[in-house]
Design a protein that fits this description.
By secondary structure, the protein is mainly beta. The model is unreliable at 14-18 (pLDDT under 50).
Length: 768
């Protein structure tokens, strides 16, 4: 009996000792940006009594005592949401993830040029889209969020087709997105030949996006327009929840989604499934999507972060086609007669898998690497053909960062590489009223693209940074034509070296000045390299851009007013000029030079903030203004014999509005009521190179009203309703540039956008 009591007392003593040791051990860990996984320096950590305990160092690392009042601390960093962190004395290793607040975007750390800096401190045109920006609308399309960025334009009239251009580049794409390099979680979405489609992305699963405006080839390879790096949502730190959401709207819009989130110190999980249908504003414009997204982040050790991306999307979309001006006037909701007869549509299944790792060898040396595979099957009846494609790509991206910690002229070095190989097995048939007819093409493409890049960031003094970068890029298309073997061959483009130099000086929070010169290139896609007889054009090369830019960024009026001003001049040469030689046959030549001179200004003013202790917790008007003076400098169209057929020197660049303005206001209250309103103006734009036809100027007003409420301790509700195109304007967002009317018919330029339409939704989140 005495032995048993002694044994019990001994166990109790040991457990008490271990618990005391745990309480005396410091809590340590790292603080990251929840979306980009960048370490965050200078994060203030407060106790629940308001005492500042410490700040995170340049690597995001911190240590505090485990014994804290209420077993929690508060993290604060300008540009990010304040975070209450629960302390568990049995787990002393934390990996805290902070979310951008969507208000002080100049202070959010950006990863665009691999610099550990705020947007205000980063040279070049860099813009951020946060979850808050996406949720200003119905979150079915990215159009409102992207069009709120000066210099960026997303045109979309139906969900089946979208075109994104940055500073005029990409606007001439006849399908999909061109000249813009797109990533998801640093994994390329852009195919090896430069073509991008974003329909596989679930807008509701996007947490943030960084947009680089202008050539960024020095670190991202091909793309004269710029780069968009989407980051999928991650679970809020220390939250485990299950959310159900529903949305209904005009023209048969329905969406249901379920999302699971778990944000821990060892694993962060985000899984979402969504079902969406839209009958469409126009005849023959039904759109159906199924989305399954998994985004996982693991912290196996303090040196390693592992990420896993899984995405599966199904799209069934009808394509209504373009209309002439007379057809729009008669009935803007009708479909193009040929599209109806040929049952034009896009039926596609996408699968994307990506695995990434960030590894910190020591405080000076780190690596980030991702590998991926991406494949789809496409069933695509078009007015001129019936296409069936099978596509698979795989590749990797890696970058090493080294900081030797020089005492004089401290410099941070980055070297890396990216490889992407895509294989397309394409078959084209005669389209017999929406059914496959006789086969007329059977071609395989094997496209390979790689780039090697280098960048250095040198601090000339405490306020001045010099950035130097360069990349070497190679691209080839291997074409195998099974029906016409004489048209098979290898198209190898000239290697491209693309340098960048940038100088930044921060005078104060009120003013940071930046100057940069950057170069870029965009190759023709694999479908644009053919001559009129179908043979490979041996002389066709990539178009090139040289961009000169000055930026001024800062915060005024006690950091309530944020501004970002960019002045740029971009010269394009070797531009790809499309020449329609006969119906459904278009050839391309490097026959164009254009000048892109422009100014971009974004403003945001926080009239009221949460710390003002008012009933209104946030009142923020904002504006984005774009001025574009883009012209043809040396621009000629050629026929099949390379003879000049027309000269357009001095004409305005096709598809570009001289003025674009976006104005909005956000209002949020302590009771949970919120209101978002926006006004968008697009100036008239030329529809053809000759500048003889124009898309009229138009304006769109949108508004959304909602109410957020915590019903009980573990249940949150968000109910909302919105109205788009409140003024009921008639307009075409996306237009078919340089459309040709055959047999005396009018050119079909226009794709009418929806008139006034509303929507409403309900989100319920259960927090475990």
């Amino acid at each position: 009996m005495y032995l048993f009591r002694y044994f019990i007392l001994s166990i109790g003593f040991v457990l008490a000792t271990l618990q005391l040791q745990a309480q005396n051990q410091p809590v340590k860990g790292y603080i990251y940006d929840s979306q980009t996984r960048q370490p965050l320096a200078g994060v203030h950590i407060f106790s629940s009594t308001g005492q500042e305990l410490t700040q995170s160092n340049t690597k995001g690392y911190f240590e505090i005592q485990s014994e804290q009042p209420d077993h929690q601390v508060k993290t604060v960093l300008n540009g990010y949401k304040a975070q209450l962190v629960k302390i568990n004395i049995n787990d002393n290793d934390l990996n805290i993830q902070l979310e951008a607040d969507g208000l002080s975007l100049n202070e959010v750390r950006v990863s665009g040029y691999n610099g550990d800096k705020t947007n205000r401190e980063t040279a070049g045109g860099v813009a951020l889209i946060t979850l808050k920006d996406i949720n200003r609308g119905n979150a079915v399309s990215l159009q409102p969020a992207l069009n709120a960025i000066p210099g960026v334009r997303m045109d979309q009239s139906t969900l089946s087709e979208a075109r994104i251009s940055i500073r005029g580049n990409g606007v001439r794409a006849s399908y999909g997105i061109r000249s813009v390099k797109v990533y998801v979680n640093e994994i390329p979405v852009t195919e090896a030949d430069g073509t991008t489609r974003i329909e596989a992305l679930d807008v509701n699963s996007i947490g943030r996006a960084e947009v680089i405006k202008g050539p960024a080839s020095s670190i991202y390879g091909a793309g004269t327009a710029g780069v968009i790096n989407f980051q999928l949502q991650r679970a809020p730190y220390q939250e485990q929840s299950l959310e159900a959401s529903g949305l209904v709207g005009a023209y048969g819009l329905h969406r249901l989604a379920t999302t699971y989130r778990s944000g821990g110190d060892k694993v962060n999980s985000y899984v979402s499934y969504g079902w969406q249908e839209y009958n469409g504003y126009r005849e023959h414009s039904n759109d159906m999507r199924r989305f399954l997204t998994g985004n996982f982040q693991l912290f196996p050790s303090e040196k390693r972060i592992i990420t896993l991306l899984l995405n599966r999307t199904t799209q069934h979309s009808q394509i209504p086609g373009s209309l002439t001006a007379d057809q729009v006037a008669a009935n803007p909701q009708q479909a193009n007669a040929t599209n109806l007869d040929k049952a034009a549509g896009r039926y596609q299944n996408w699968t994307r898998i990506g695995l990434g790792q960030q590894y910190r060898f020591n405080d000076q040396f780190s690596n980030s690497t991702s590998v991926f595979t991406y494949f789809y099957d496409l069933n695509h009846p078009l007015p001129y053909a019936y296409i069936r494609n099978y596509y698979q790509s795989y590749g990797a991206r890696t970058k090493f960062t080294f900081d030797p910690e020089f005492s004089a002229l401290p410099t941070r070095f980055t070297v890396g590489a990216e490889y992407n190989e895509g294989i397309t097995k394409g078959t084209q048939y005669v389209n017999n009223h929406g059914k496959e007819g006789a086969i007329n093409s059977n071609i395989d493409y094997q496209n390979k693209q790689y780039s090697i890049f280098y960048q250095s960031e040198t601090k000339l003094d405490l306020q001045t940074t010099l950035t130097l970068g360069i990349s070497y890029n190679s691209l080839s298309y291997n074409v195998q034509d099974y029906l016409k073997s004489s048209q098979s061959g290898l198209k190898k483009f000239n290697p491209q070296a693309t340098p960048r130099i940038a100088l930044s000086h921060t005078f104060s929070d009120a003013l940071s000045l930046h100057a940069s010169v950057s170069s870029g290139f965009s190759p023709p896609s694999s479908s644009e390299i053919k001559n009129v007889d179908g043979s490979i054009n041996p002389t066709l090369q990539a178009e090139k851009a040289l961009n000169y830019e000055i930026n001024a960024k800062g915060n005024l009026l006690k950091s309530r007013l944020e501004y970002d001003l960019a002045l740029f001049k971009m010269d394009m040469k070797g531009e790809l000029i499309a020449q329609s030689v006969q119906q459904s046959i278009t050839i391309y030549n490097n026959a164009g030079k254009t000048t892109h001179n422009g100014a971009e200004l974004s403003l945001s003013y926080q009239l009221l903030k949460a710390e003002d202790q008012k009933e209104i917790t946030s009142l923020r008007p904002f504006a984005a203004v774009t001025y574009s003076d883009f012209k043809f400098k040396d621009y000629k169209t050629l026929n099949a014999q390379n003879q000049v057929t027309a000269t357009y020197d001095g004409n305005k660049l096709t598809g570009i509005s001289p003025w674009v303005v976006n104005i909005g206001i956000d209002l949020e209250t302590r009771t949970g009521l919120y209101f978002y309103g926006s006004y968008f103006f697009s100036d008239q734009l030329p529809l053809n190179d000759a500048n003889t036809a124009y898309n009229p100027a138009y304006q769109v007003v949108n508004a959304k009203l909602g109410y957020k409420k915590q019903l009980i301790k573990c249940l949150e509700m968000n109910i909302y309703a919105g109205l788009d195109n409140i003024l009921n304007k008639s307009y075409s967002s996306i237009v078919s540039l340089n459309a040709v009317g055959y047999g005396g018919a009018q050119p079909a330029y226009f794709n009418p956008s929806p008139k006034r339409n509303g929507y409403g939704g309900l989100n319920l989140k259960y927090i475990f």
